[in-house]
Automatic annotation (TrEMBL):
Annotated ranges, domain Cytochrome c-552/4: 60-84, 191-232
Residues that span the membrane, as ranges: none
This protein's UniProt keywords: Signal
Keyword Plastid: no
Protein species of origin: Roseomonas alba
UniProt cross-references to Gene3D superfamilies, sorted A to Z: Flavocytochrome C3, Chain A, Tetratricopeptide repeat domain
Protein name: Tetratricopeptide repeat protein
Domain Doubled CXXCH motif: 355-380
Amino acid sequence: MRSMTPPCSPAFGTRRTLRWLATLMALVATPFLLAALILAPERPVAQPAMRASFAGSASCAGCHAPQAQTWHGSDHARAMMAATPQTVLGDFSGQTVTDGRHTATFRREGDRYLVRTDGPGGTVADFAVSEAFGVDPLQQYLVLFPDGRRQPLPWAWDSRPRAEGGQRWYHLMPQEELTAGDPLHWIGRDQTWNFMCASCHVTGAERGYDQASDRYDTRWVELGVGCESCHGPGAAHVAWAQAGASANDPRARLPVALRDASGGAWRFAEGDPRGIAHWEGPPRISATTEVETCAPCHARARPIVADPVPGSRFLDTHAPLLLARGEYQADGHIQGEVFEWGSFTQSRMQRAGVTCSDCHNPHDGKLHAEGNAVCAQCHLPARFDTAEHHHHPAGSDGARCTSCHMPQVTYMGIDRRHDHSFSVPRPDVAAQIGAPDACTTCHTDRAQSWAAQRIADWFGPRRRDDPHWALAIEAGRQGRPGADAGLAAIVTDRSQPAIRRATAVSLLPVPPTQASAGAVGAALLDAEPLLRATALRALEGLDPRNRMHAVRFLTDPVRLVRIEAARVLAPVPRDALPEASRPAFDHAWAELIASERVAAERPEAQVNLAGLLAARGDAAGAEAAYRAALARDPTYLAALVNLADFEARRGRPDAALAALRQAVAAHPRAAEAHYALALALIRQGRAAEALAPLAEAAALAPGEPGYAYVQAIALHEQGRRAEAVAALEANLRRNPRHRDSMIALATMARDQGDVAEAERQARAALALNPNDRDAAALLQQLRAMRPRPPAAGR
């Protein structure tokens, strides 16, 4: 069980969104503060600049006054502000608010803003607001604790006009029973601003986490997203300007060159019936730079270096989330709180060279034009802004380009955000993958079949991209037979965006089929580093002796690829590596370990470290990392389960069982805890004792067919055949495509002489996958066992 280090993500979403941050398991944290430390200091602690290379936005305004003035009132500039009468929007007049589950009182004492609610240990107390967080459409408030943590209060101020339902307090997770100790409680680790938010809400952040003391000394250059958050550290540039601004001075250029100096432009080709502009002129040197400058804060991604500065290649500093189930629909539309990068990089517009600033003013963040006019920059209104194209009344919501091509999803209760894949509505595909679509999201009284028929009536029954790639992604997610071929086709189609192709790689079956093996091999040689990195992960399912293909990637120019190569080679002894490659491995290994230590305060990062160190034979280091994980959360499930496996492997079965019993006690509703305990008992020859936890695991997770299957096998081995058959039959009723249950039933029926039933089950297994050699061999054996009819005349 590998634990995922969470990405930089919103600290205040739904439980489903935030649970992804900690391996999709139910987690219970222990309080990290004493009740005596409830009140924050009266004033926020001053945070001096730590990085001498930064100058601060104020130093830019003298030479760049128009840009500074435009930026000053932007959401970027107000991403985080000291809590003052000028910045706090919420009503702190003394009102008490409750939603039936949570209660808080908001009041003001002079220039101090206080919120009375439950804190560490469940104690109700006053908490002083240190900073305001954002402005539109909501504002949140932070509390500074003595150990340096800043935690966002769970109540937000709806800053929309009253006529739109705003000017009120509301709880961000009203349906959750959040109590102190839950990592999603506002004082829990999944809400810690220092890790989750700091790098994107202040300029020049240094997280300053000290593992030994488990404290933060987070510092920054300035609050909010300032000039240097995008243009890079500017101290040298300011010094150049103050020294006389010589054109030959290398300091003349800022670290991140965002200005387009190509001289090209988007232009419409005369007579082109498409009505879509194309780039005319030299390549846009700044196109990639701009998108990668925005990506770290507009992508769901895990940092792989500590406190990166602007100007770095995105995959040198972050590992982005692919189109993961629960975060993206199978058609690539946003679902979880994943921001814009992941959808934008799927778009044809991005592949054509469109950048963020083609639509948005980079200094105030607003669109260059309102409504359809912003799209008309590159899409002729005479072709697209017509009833013949959008089939809705002029001026209506349905006539807006964004209604069909940028559907919205609401986060944090009221924050509606547009999907940036700019895709064509496909209600027919959405119906097949169980996803919403732009048409019936608006026409809520209509079925997706109705919407699909309307589109077919308007544009014709055939579409250019049939069959749609989303069907292959959904098949891969579901593990359907034959999914490998569709996924492999996406992987090898270089006209598809890299994030989509990498997602297809991640969904290929293990062990590999002929199709999937070929796709992984092609991805390893691909020009896109995201493909190479993901393909290397696919090699983790191979025996260490078969992972030597990763050696060549230890010197890849992209850090993410190098660290994935090192991860794949972790179990390979150093002496087994080619001698010439050993220094490269050492370097990539150091980068890998450093990437996990970026999140040293998180128990999942410590579990990852422990697994890597154990693979290298560093038992002491692995044990220390497991202990560090449990020091941060003594009930962390991934740590307990992995520690148990670690203890078993080094010949300490009693310690392994103790860890697993602790896991079951802490997580009685977690099927994986019961299942892990059962497997440990089976390995120790105590199969009879394993039956109870196996039954519990199967009951808790009826949708996980593997649990009930192992339960049935254990029952059969204990001589309880009837119960085993009943468990398998029930498993197939719940999970009718579970091949292993079919094969087990066929084998049990064969052994009882019921050849007809055995054949029925074997045929069903073979129907799932006609290339299933084991099922075919079993069926052939069963046919040979059929009673032969008596010879004629006897």
